[in-house]
């Protein structure tokens, strides 16, 4: 681990970031360039003390999970992320479709969507990051581990996953998920994560196995999705997709037409979601 090099690199990248780059309010006059340490720590999901020690060259060797979080928080490019891993004494991760690193440009877009449900997902349906309103709409989809990280796997093995969607739409979701996974598995070949996921689902889900034999590809949703929310009911939303072909990740953005009942429900959900987050924070601090 190059403790001094790591500290310098973190400091330089923090100083290069401006509040507008990450959706942070400028606030009062800043005496130093870039973001404050506490702002970067919040973006990385870690304590200010822990991040500050790393930047001062006094911290312990961060884990690979911590380095991934820091790379995302600092909006690093892939080359910068790889350099950060090496400075921290780790091998840089292989650049595969399962990569948890989000393209810096895509993260900048996400930073400006705090009042909109949006999330970044991989080709195999693993949600990497969500806006707060996406969590309020669909639940925290980043908390899963193992094969359950993939919504495709959860869709066919966990009945709770389907409660977010109108029952009449379930058959369509099933066909689309299977077709998407077949496309990825065919592209990446045997031995890939997608192929292993398909094999596992064929063994665990008769529904998946039956659909897999149909060999369907190219099936996609319309640009509207009906979400069944336990507090505000059915919300019909437009779902726009921005694809990053280099990392096979997609940014999903959910919107509603202004002046419609769905738009009113989405605004209500932003209030309900804020209240739930506030209550969770209060409970955790108690």
Automatic annotation (TrEMBL):
<dbReference type="Pfam" id="PF13560">
    <property type="entry name" value="HTH_31"/>
</dbReference>
<feature type="domain" description="HTH cro/C1-type">
    <location>
        <begin position="34"/>
        <end position="81"/>
    </location>
</feature>
<dbReference type="Pfam" id="PF17765">
    <property type="entry name" value="MLTR_LBD"/>
</dbReference>
<dbReference type="InterPro" id="IPR010982">
    <property type="entry name" value="Lambda_DNA-bd_dom_sf"/>
</dbReference>
<protein>
    <submittedName>
        <fullName>Helix-turn-helix transcriptional regulator</fullName>
    </submittedName>
</protein>
<dbReference type="InterPro" id="IPR001387">
    <property type="entry name" value="Cro/C1-type_HTH"/>
</dbReference>
<dbReference type="InterPro" id="IPR041413">
    <property type="entry name" value="MLTR_LBD"/>
</dbReference>
């Amino acid at each position: 681990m190059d403790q001094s090099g790591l500290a310098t690199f973190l400091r330089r990248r923090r100083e290069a970031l401006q509040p507008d780059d990450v959706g942070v309010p400028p606030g009062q006059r800043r005496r130093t360039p870039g973001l404050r340490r506490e702002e970067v720590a919040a973006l990385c999901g870690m304590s200010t003390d822990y991040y500050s020690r790393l930047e001062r060259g006094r911290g312990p060797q961060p884990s690979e999970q911590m380095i991934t979080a820091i790379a995302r928080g600092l909006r690093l490019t892939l080359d910068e992320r790889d350099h950060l891993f090496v400075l921290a004494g780790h091998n840089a991760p292989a650049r595969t479709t399962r990569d948890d690193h989000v393209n810096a440009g895509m993260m900048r877009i996400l930073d400006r969507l705090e009042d909109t449900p949006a999330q970044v997902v991989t080709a195999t349906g693993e949600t990497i990051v969500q806006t707060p309103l996406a969590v309020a709409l669909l639940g925290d989809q980043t908390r899963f581990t193992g094969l359950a990280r993939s919504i495709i796997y959860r869709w066919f093995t966990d009945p709770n996953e389907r409660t977010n969607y109108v029952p009449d739409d379930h058959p369509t979701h099933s066909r689309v998920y299977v077709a998407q996974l077949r496309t990825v598995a065919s592209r990446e070949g045997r031995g890939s994560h997608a192929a292993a996921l398909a094999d596992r689902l064929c063994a665990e889900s008769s529904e998946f196995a039956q659909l897999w034999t149909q060999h369907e590809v190219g099936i996609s949703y319309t640009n509207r999705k009906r979400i069944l929310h336990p507090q505000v009911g059915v919300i019909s939303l437009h779902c726009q997709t921005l694809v990053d072909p280099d990392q096979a990740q997609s940014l999903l953005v959910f919107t509603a037409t202004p002046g419609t009942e769905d738009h009113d429900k989405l605004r209500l959900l932003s209030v309900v979601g804020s209240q739930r987050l506030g209550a969770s924070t209060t409970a955790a601090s108690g």
